[in-house]
Every structure is written in structure tokens, then in C-alpha cells.
């Protein structure tokens, strides 16, 4: 898998041609192997933006390019070879095993109804090994814990051998240990990653850059250390935010209170 540059130029989206935009024109870029966090309150447009990035919805305006090529100028199959997504909603596995779920990620690389070949199985084995899923390979997906399921869905995405990986709230509904596991995994993949997160402290710790959205408008884009000021965070989330620097590591942590 080779990571790619992701360029997003002026993308917007509305439910109808004449409807009010859910996402207003937004521009940013993510260099290969960097991690971009998308943050903002509920209804900010985070999931809408991600749907444009993994070609589920076509932008009303603007372009999404992977290594300079517009994703809507390629076939859906070719786009799926370049971009993979892990969503919050996990469909029923219908009794499939972990290995069978991961094998589904090879679909964009097969022709028609062709069965998996030796090359596909090598990729599946490598991904199972990368995510330490071999002990679970024959387990029914429905019997797994939330954290285990999230790892399997990431594995399925990696089996697509994408250049860009989109993650929609990957730590949502996970306990602290599994949140830490997912965060560690994100940093280790070596892909170009766009991840929506609801926890600013997680975003600041795992992301190279952050895009802040509010009411479908970009509030800023840049490194979290400089972009996430008390004023911007307070205004975006309608709280009183205070950034505290922790000794001796020097790491920072946001605390929040309701405004008077």
C-alpha cells in the first residue's frame, strides 16, 4: 500500500440542487502518510464531508483528488482501490467469520463473481497478522466485543489496499482501553488518513492537522498545537475551554465548563 496526497478544493453539499448547504465550500489538503482529524459539534457537517471523500455522495461544488486525479473521473471500482472507509454503522455480518469479513475487502480487486485467488489470500493473511486478528479469524463476527469489531472493520478496509483511509468516529462507544488501541493503530498504519473525532484531546494527540467545522463552515485548518486555541474551541463548541499543559511531559489537555 502506497499512501497518496489528498486534495479537497471547494467541496460543498446540499440535499437538493436548490437546498440549503449542509456543508459550505471547504478546502484543505493532506500529504501522504499524514493524519487529518475532523472535529466539531454534532451537526457540524463532519459525516457529510467524509461521505464526499469516500465517494458516497458527489460534491455540489468542488473536487476531491487523490494524487491529482478527481475521484469522480474514475470508476467506483477504481475509487475503492484507492479509498477505503470505516463507518460508525456496522451492518449485520449474517454469520460470517472474521476472515470472511476481511476477505470482503478484496472485492474491488476481483472481476465479476470471481473467487478469491492466492494473491487475495496473501493480502488477507498479511492484514490479519498486522492487526493481530489470527486468534479471532474463525470467530463469528457477531460474537466479538466492540473493540474487536472495530479492528476487524479496519482490517477489511486495509484489505482493499487503499492509499487513503477514512474513519468516521472510530473510538465512538468504545471503552478507554479500546479507544487507546484504535488510536495507536491509526498512527501505525502509514496511510493517508482522515478521521472524524468527537474528543479534542484524542485529536490533538493523534492528528498531524485538524479541520474544525461548525454549522457546515470551516473554522480553521492546521496543526492542533496552534489551531486549537481556547477562543476557537470555546466558540465552536459553545463552552468555556481551557488548555492546560501537563508536566513533565509538556503535553496539553483541554478542560471544559459551561459558560455562565
SSE diagram, text form:
Blueprint: E1 6-13, E2 23-30, E3 35-39, H1 46-53, E4 61-66, E5 69-70, H2 76-82, E6 83-86, H3 98-103, H4 118-130, H5 146-159, E7 164-168, H6 176-188, E8 192-196, H7 200-206, E9 209-214, E10 217-222, H8 224-227, H9 230-237, E11 240-245, E12 252-257
Parallel strand pairs: 3-8, 3-9, 6-7, 7-8
Antiparallel strand pairs: 1-2, 1-4, 4-5, 9-10, 11-12
What does this protein look like?
It is a single chain. This protein is α/β, with parallel strands linked by helices and 260 residues long. The protein has 2 domains: 6-228, P-loop containing nucleotide triphosphate hydrolases (Rossmann fold), CATH 3.40.50; 229-260, no CATH class. It contains 9 helices and 12 strands. The chain has helices at residues 46-53, 76-82, 98-103, 118-130, 146-159, 176-188, 200-206, 224-227, 230-237; strands spanning 6-13, 23-30, 35-39, 61-66, 69-70, 83-86, 164-168, 192-196, 209-214, 217-222, 240-245, 252-257. Strands 6-7-8-3-9-10 form a 6-stranded mixed sheet, sandwiched between helices. Strand 4 and strand 5 form a beta hairpin. Helix 4 (118-130) packs antiparallel against helix 5 (146-159) and helix 5 (146-159) runs parallel beside helix 6 (176-188). It is globular. The N and C termini lie far apart (51 Å). The mean pLDDT is 90. It comes from Tritonibacter horizontis.
Amino acid at each position: 500500500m502506497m499512501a497518496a496526497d489528498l486534495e479537497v478544493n471547494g467541496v460543498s453539499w446540499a440535499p437538493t440542487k436548490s437546498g440549503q448547504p449542509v456543508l459550505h465550500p471547504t478546502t484543505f489538503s493532506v500529504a501522504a502518510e499524514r493524519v487529518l482529524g475532523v472535529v466539531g459539534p454534532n451537526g457540524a457537517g463532519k459525516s457529510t464531508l467524509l461521505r464526499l471523500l469516500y465517494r458516497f455522495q458527489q460534491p455540489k461544488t468542488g473536487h476531491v483528488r487523490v494524487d491529482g486525479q478527481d475521484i469522480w473521473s474514475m470508476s467506483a471500482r477504481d475509487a475503492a482501490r484507492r479509498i477505503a472507509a470505516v463507518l460508525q454503522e456496522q451492518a449485520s455480518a449474517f454469520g460470517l467469520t472474521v476472515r470472511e469479513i476481511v476477505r470482503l475487502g478484496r472485492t474491488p480487486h476481483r472481476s465479476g463473481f470471481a473467487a478469491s485467488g492466492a494473491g487475495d489470500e496473501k493480502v488477507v493473511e498479511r492484514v490479519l497478522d498486522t492487526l493481530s486478528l489470527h486468534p479471532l479469524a474463525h470467530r463469528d463476527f457477531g460474537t466479538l466485543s466492540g473493540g474487536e469489531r472495530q479492528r476487524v472493520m479496519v482490517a477489511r478496509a486495509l484489505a482493499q489496499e487503499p492509499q487513503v483511509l477514512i474513519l468516521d468516529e472510530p473510538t465512538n462507544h468504545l471503552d478507554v482501553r479500546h479507544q487507546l488501541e484504535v488510536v495507536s493503530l491509526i498512527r501505525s498504519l502509514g496511510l493517508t488518513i482522515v478521521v472524524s473525532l468527537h474528543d479534542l484531546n484524542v485529536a490533538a494527540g493523534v492528528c498531524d492537522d485538524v479541520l474544525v467545522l461548525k454549522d457546515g463552515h470551516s473554522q480553521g485548518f492546521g496543526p492542533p498545537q496552534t489551531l486549537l486555541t481556547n477562543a476557537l474551541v470555546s466558540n465552536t463548541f459553545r463552552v468555556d475551554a481551557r488548555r492546560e499543559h501537563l508536566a513533565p511531559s509538556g503535553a496539553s489537555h483541554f478542560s471544559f465548563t459551561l459558560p455562565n
